[in-house]
Amino acid sequence: MSVISKYKILSQAKDSFSKAEFETALEKFATVLQNYPNSKEAYNGVILSEMAMSGEGAAEALFDYYEILKEEDSEQADVIMSELLSNMDGSMDSLGELFAEPIRDRLEYEDGILYDDFKKIIENGTSFKETFENIMFSTRVIISEKEDFIEFLDSLIEHGFNKMALNYLEGALSAYPTDDKLRKLLTKLSKGKIIEN
């Protein structure tokens, strides 16, 4: 039996999911799982694809959340998503609690500042650049919404943190290669001067 390219098929599966081609995504995640039974990412992908195929609108939000978590810590993201999905036990009624509250609880003991709190500091008169420079070596900004992530990337570019923005963009574009907003940010970044503050 020929061994498949795990990362290539996972990338194709995620791309299919992001295009709402859930059946194709399911087949690809299942192929990886068949060849790599210990792949938590493939296992989670199968469950999310099945949820999406059954019409659960929350599946797409969970998938986006999963991708954001993976940018922070891939292994931890797999564990968190596995726990989240196993705790759902087929009932979507408690999804709001599972999706929002544990995030804040979990973040309280991590080295990080929620993006909303980061924005509040800026709204109180401190510049983005100054605030970000003050925290970038001691903590991290934790973002759980895709729109906030795009806004944050745009601010990084606006304030000259181009290399950092490029690193984030490369990761995001590998997960969402056809996302218009991400592509616009990449174009904006490529037109600017790559000078790191």
Task: Give structural notes.
The chain is 72% helix and 2% strand. It folds into two domains: 1-108, no CATH class; 111-191. The chain has 197 residues and is mostly helical. It has a two-stranded parallel ribbon. The N and C termini lie far apart (51 Å). Mean pLDDT is 76; it is low at 89-110 and 193-197. The protein has eleven helices and two strands, in the order ααααααβααβααα. Helix 1 (6-18) packs parallel to helix 3 (40-53), helix 3 packs antiparallel against helix 4 and helix 10 packs antiparallel against helix 11 (180-191). The longest helix is centred in the first third of the chain and has 15 residues, at 58-72.
Keywords for this entry:
mainly alpha, 2 strands, 72% helix
Topology overview:
Elements: H1 6-18, H2 22-35, H3 40-53, H4 58-72, H5 74-88, H6 95-108, E1 113-114, H7 115-123, H8 128-135, E2 141-142, H9 146-158, H10 162-175, H11 180-191
Parallel strand pairs: 1-2
Helix pairs in contact: 1-2, 1-3, 2-3, 3-4, 3-5, 4-5, 9-10, 9-11, 10-11
Short account of what is shown:
The chain has 197 residues and is mostly helical.
Q: How many beta-strand elements?
A: 2
**In percent terms, what proportion of residues is strand?**
under 5%
Largest sheet: 2 strands, parallel
Principal-axes geometry comes out as elongated
> Strand pairing plus helix content: what structural class?
mainly alpha
